[in-house]
Amino acid sequence: MNRHVRRLVALVNLREYVDYHTADTSIRNNIAFKGPNVIILACAIVIASVGLNVNSIPVIIGAMLISPVMGPILGMGLGLGTEDKSLLMESLKNFAIMVAISVLASSVFFILSPLTLENPSELLARTNPTIYDVLIALFGGFAGIIETSRKEKGTVISGVAIATALMPPLCTIGYGISRLNFTFMGGALYLFTINTIFIGLATFLAVKLLKFPAVQTADEKHQRLSKSWYVVILMIVILPSIITAINVVKENNFKIHATNLVQNNKNIGKSFVYDYKTTYTRKKQTIDIFVAGDALTAEAKENLYRNAEDYGIMRNQIIIHEDATVVRENLSEAEILKGIYEHTDKEIKMLNDSIARLNARLGDYAGKEIPVQAIAQELFAQHPQITNVSITRGSVVNAESDAQVEQIIAYINSDEPVDSLLHSQIERWLKVRLKNDNVLVVEAK
User: Fold this and answer.
1) Rounded distance, CA 353 to CA 337, Å?
2) Whole-model pTM?
3) What is the pLDDT of residues 61-116, one digit of tens each?
4) How many angstroms separate the CA atoms of 57 and 54, rounded?
5) Which of 15, 115, 167, 442 is deepest in the core (most CB within 10 A)?
6) What's the rounded Cα separation, in Å, for the pair 383 and 12?
7) How distant, in Å, are the alpha carbons of 179, 287, 308 from that of 260?
């Protein structure tokens, strides 16, 4: 064997770091759900449900660290890998108990919870798994069984519990049950199934790779039957996961192609795509494209269909919504000029009307000029303490008639404070002098 190859093999060799007995004992001890494990599981489920209910990621992470749900799944993988039928059956039984307790606790919580968010993003995130969830579960399972098996323990299990996220989907199933929402129930169950299958598969493959010792039986015939039974179970577990993975890959690819199609066709003729939505089910795969601007021509639609085929999207999978488009008729040059002239005439008429109104207002004030200079001289003569006078016109709204009434405001400056008596005298005098009852005197400071 080449020296570099031997060095690489030695680098990734795990067997000298594996403690088979400790790993086996640890997994078996964490399978059973009774006593403290049941209480811890119920608490973790409620905590995770609260986190999902209020969209709190730290709370959800804390619940995943508390939860003991990995035990039965690792037990199933170890039972399959070591051909231990009793361990497999015990793991399956406790796995079912774990799922039942989790779904029941979360359903009760969401039924009693008075809070319903308009956009439960953390719950929605657990209803639409992608290929990345498959990869996380698979490699998380590998990390989990390797950490459980090695002699020196670390903190990998905590990270695996967070990454593989078994708790949130179970809580989301409970939410779907409490609201009778089959979309949430189905999507979350789908994600939980993916996580369970691929963590179990990774555990099984790691057990085989690390050469965990198989369980010995005295009856050779029973051993052969057991092996056949394990193969059947293994196929039942693996085949759905393969189908699921293929469907997830197809859905993910369809969404990527749809996004690329829209990004490369933002502008279609004189229209533009302002939104799009993809729908992917086993029977139906469509992309709804929402268009604004001018109505699409047959040629523009055909170009879009041909471009879509380059992305593997058929024309019958594209639904174009033109609710926000308008149909523009072909206008002659004379009609266009006529429209411009009509618009210009309308603008000129509006400007002339505004000028006429302003002239009318100026005319109203033309004969009502206030003799400010004469009034000031008369006030100075009557009241020597007054040093400055300014008079202006204004308007106030009558509270009873809700109509605007002209008002004259006189601002006076004085060397000495103007008392209320003098203030009233000046105001009465100005009303007589200006022949206007709406006169207000204000002492300027």
Assistant:
1) 24
2) 0.54
3) 777 777 777 788 888 888 888 878 888 888 888 888 888 888 898 888 888 877 66
4) 9
5) 167
6) 109
7) 36, 12, 9
